[in-house]
Amino acid sequence: MMDKLMITVALVGAETTKQDNPNLPTSPQELADAAYACWEAGASIIHLHVRDANEQPTQDVAVFAEAKRLINKRCDIIVQFSTGGAVGLPVEERTKPLSVRPEMATLSTGTVNFGPDVFMNSEHYIEGIAKAIVENGVKPEIEVFEVGMIDNALRLVRKGLLTLPLHFDFVMGVPGGIGGTVKNLLHLVESIPVGSSWSVAGIGRAELPLATMAIIMGGHVRVGFEDNIYYSRGVKAESNAQLVARIVRLAKELGREVATPNEARQQLGMA
User: Fold this and answer.
1) What is the DSSP letter of 204?
2) How far apart are CA 220 and CA 185, in angstroms?
3) What pLDDT, in 10s, does the model give residues 74-112?
4) Domains contained in the chain, number
């Protein structure tokens, strides 16, 4: 029997702007309002980046803390901090917000071309972030942009820096990373250890077909403006919650129950 479907929503990211979609939430209050709407729609996890007063990506601890406080005040959704920050940030900056003690945080286990930029994750970066996640009592989500990053994550297990079972998120369709195809998704799923859980974040037009496959295959789904600002071809999404609601409808049509935040905690071994 499949686990209930955990829906993660990536509200803002580090690249998308209000020029791309004017409905993008950027302030702590906007992020909290969007998180609450997504929780009402059926999301169980918020993947959180934050922006400064000029709407630029930041790893400012105070901004993360305020966004988390406002979200936790309104609902019990799991708050997952991004340790990716923005391209080019040093490891020390990327790990500072973990002092706020979110329930989860991402751990990208390899370097990848990110459009015209390079998202740098050397062995030093990966191990430093892994240690910071564990020291702060946070549940890691292994962020995978290509298949070799799975091997890197398992190397951390062998070194005693992480423990099984792991939860993976396959980010597919980033220019420079693994393509957002069903064939590639099957390969990634077959490459992780038995007993692992996984979700998929399809970028752009890959979002909906890969989400549908994940529902069918027993995986989990990430949607949101970080990954895709459109609802359909040429039609911009009204909100992150609109993207969540579509996944909930699809899951119901396909006979897959949707997890509440507390059910997600149990499935991830966090309860």
Assistant:
1) G
2) 12
3) 999 999 999 987 667 788 889 999 999 999 999 999 999
4) 1
Query: H-helix or E-strand containing 144?
Result: strand 139-144
Q: Residue 140 is part of a domain; what is its CATH number?
A: 3.20.20.70
In a domain, 2, yes or no: no
236, part of any domain: yes
Report d(CA 126, CA 154) in Å as an integer: 12
Q: What tens digit of pLDDT does each residue of 151-186 get?
A: 999 999 999 999 999 999 999 999 999 999 999 999
Q: Is the pTM of this model over 0.85?
A: yes
The Cβ of residue 271 has, within 10 Å, a number of other Cβ atoms equal to 9
Q: Give a yes or no: residue 221 inside a domain.
A: yes
Range of the domain at 140: 7-267
Cis peptide before 90 (omega within 30 of 0): no
| Token output for 63 | 């901004």
Residues 6+ apart with CB under 8 A from 231: 237, 238, 242, 243, 246
